[in-house]
Amino acid sequence: MRTSVQPPKVLPAANDVCWCGSGRKYKRCHKPLEGRVLPGIV
């Protein structure tokens, strides 16, 4: 079974470790995706 990691309600600061568990800084991992509208997702 595959589980998905949900983003936290309060996002981390840019230099904190990303919430996804990658070990990368948030600004280099998921911050660029923040606010982006994905096609097919409403």
Helix content: under 10%
**Main beta-sheet annotation:** none
Query: Structural class of the secondary structure composition?
Result: little secondary structure
Quantity of strands, as a count: 0
Low-pLDDT parts are none
Distance between the termini: 26 Å
The count of helical stretches stands at: 0
Shape: globular
Question: Which percent band covers the strand fraction?
Answer: under 5%
Radius of gyration (Å): 12 Å
Mean pLDDT: 78
Give the topology, please.
Layout lengths: L42
How would you portray this structure in words?
The chain has no helices and no strands. The N and C termini lie far apart (26 Å). The chain is largely without helices or strands and 42 residues long. The protein is 0% helix and 0% strand.
Question: Can you summarize this structure?
Answer:
This protein has 42 residues and is low in regular secondary structure. 0% of the residues lie in helices and 0% in strands.
Task: Looking at this protein, list some descriptive labels.
globular; little secondary structure; 42 residues
